[in-house]
């Protein structure tokens, strides 16, 4: 089972969501290694990209690492059709296999600039932007959006229909409105309206962090695939687990004990190499915290990892702290996290 996007086969139809500050090259590489039909870069600000000096643009080639982390889509954020088209041309030239347009980001920093989900409030303008990007590149263009701006403006289906007519090849819908930010629960059933409006593939997104959730999201939305964001944090094998259960791909070898410590250490060192020591130390902390949460590690491990003063100290903690991880403590931690999420949503 796969999703066909122009000449590309997204197989399995389980994808890693774009997450600014998280889905960098080291993380995408890990997720792709376990197995994913597609991974999406952090959003790239189109205006900054086109005005950057050539040396900075060349750096983007390294940062994006296109071609080295499985089938990769580069997500662009922006407001103006011209710079968006120019940025699309640039990243396609760097090797992006798919260009995704961000119409879902709720952050004030982004919607304040009238990009991200704010584009859903101005559909005619959004269409001009989509047409400019589609016209600028020969690689497929996809669109990621929310259900709408708020509960009075649920226009995802209409926008998807117009986007498909303009040449967009796949739509991803996060089952929340912009005004919900990340509160409550994603409404997978509401995505069915988008599914009914277009013949291009529709992908369901939002709160899909387990096999059971993926099954339910697909059943309720009728979507062709799922996109997983936060569920992959601290668990880069999560997409492969879902793909195995739903689509019969090989089961990922989820590492426990010393193997989990090895994986976390490998990711940690990859981040230090990618960002350099000082920035790497800081950026790695959130990933280490998620690894500790997911593993159901000893309660002292997380805070100790957060204050580890240097890489050697962090690596020693990783070795000792994750060596005792097992499937049972992980299952307990997962049940606890699910109960917490349900309480928070209630
Ligand atoms: C920290 C963070 C950063 C994100 N950055 C982006 C982004 O750059 N572009 C985007 O379209 N969505 C972004 N998102 C939204 C996710 O792609 C996804 O739609 C959302 O988290 C819901 O899916 P999930 O419940 O599986 O995480 C971000 C979400 C988080 C939590």
Automatic annotation (TrEMBL):
Entry function: Catalyzes the synthesis of 5,6-dihydrouridine (D), a modified base found in the D-loop of most tRNAs, via the reduction of the C5-C6 double bond in target uridines.
GO molecular function, one term: flavin adenine dinucleotide binding
Superkingdom of the source species: Bacteria
Keyword RNA-binding tagged: yes
Similarity-based family: Belongs to the dus family.
Transmembrane region(s): none
Keywords assigned: Flavoprotein, FMN, NADP, Nucleotide-binding, Oxidoreductase, RNA-binding, tRNA processing, tRNA-binding
InterPro entries: Aldolase_TIM, DUS-like_FMN-bd, DUS_fam, DusB-like, tRNA-dHydroUridine_Synthase_C, tRNA_hU_synthase_CS
Binding site for FMN: 18-20, 75, 144, 174, 229-230
Protein name (database record): tRNA-dihydrouridine synthase
Catalytic activities: a 5,6-dihydrouridine in tRNA + NADP(+) = a uridine in tRNA + NADPH + H(+); a 5,6-dihydrouridine in tRNA + NAD(+) = a uridine in tRNA + NADH + H(+)
Annotated source species: Frigidibacter mobilis
């Amino acid at each position: 089972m796969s999703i066909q996007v122009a000449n590309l086969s997204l197989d399995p139809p389980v994808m890693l969501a774009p997450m600014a500050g998280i889905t960098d090259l080291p993380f995408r590489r890990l997720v792709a290694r376990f197995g994913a039909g597609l991974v999406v870069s952090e959003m790239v600000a189109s205006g900054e990209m086109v005005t950057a000096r050539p040396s900075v643009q060349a750096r983007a080639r390294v940062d994006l690492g296109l071609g080295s982390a499985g089938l990769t889509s580069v997500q662009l954020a922006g407001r103006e059709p011209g710079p968006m088209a120019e940025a699309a041309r640039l990243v396609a030239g760097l090797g992006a296999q798919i260009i995704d347009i961000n119409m879902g980001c709720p952050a004030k920093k982004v919607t304040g600039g009238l990009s991200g989900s704010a584009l859903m409030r101005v559909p005619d303008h959004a269409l001009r932007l989509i047409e400019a990007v589609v016209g600028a590149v020969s690689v497929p263009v996809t669109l990621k959006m929310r259900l709408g701006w708020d509960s009075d403006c649920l226009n995802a289906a209409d926008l998807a229909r117009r986007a498909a007519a303009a040449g967009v090849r796949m739509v991803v819908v996060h089952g929340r409105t912009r005004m919900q930010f990340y509160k409550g629960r994603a409404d997978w059933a509401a995505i069915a309206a988008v599914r009914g409006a277009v013949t291009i593939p529709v992908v369901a997104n939002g709160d899909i962090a387990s096999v059971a959730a993926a099954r339910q999201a697909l059943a309720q939305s009728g979507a062709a695939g799922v996109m997983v964001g936060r569920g992959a944090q601290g668990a880069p094998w999560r997409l492969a687990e879902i793909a195995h259960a739903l689509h019969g791909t090989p089961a990922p070898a989820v590492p426990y004990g010393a193997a989990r410590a090895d994986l976390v250490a490998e990711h940690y060192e990859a981040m230090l190499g990618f960002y350099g020591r000082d920035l790497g130390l800081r950026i790695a902390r959130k990933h280490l915290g998620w690894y500790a949460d997911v593993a159901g590690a000893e309660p002292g491990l997380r805070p100790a990892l957060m204050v580890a003063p240097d890489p050697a100290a962090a690596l020693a903690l990783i070795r000792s702290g994750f060596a005792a991880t097992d499937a049972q403590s992980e299952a307990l931690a997962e049940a606890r996290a699910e109960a917490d999420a349900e309480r928070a949503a209630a």
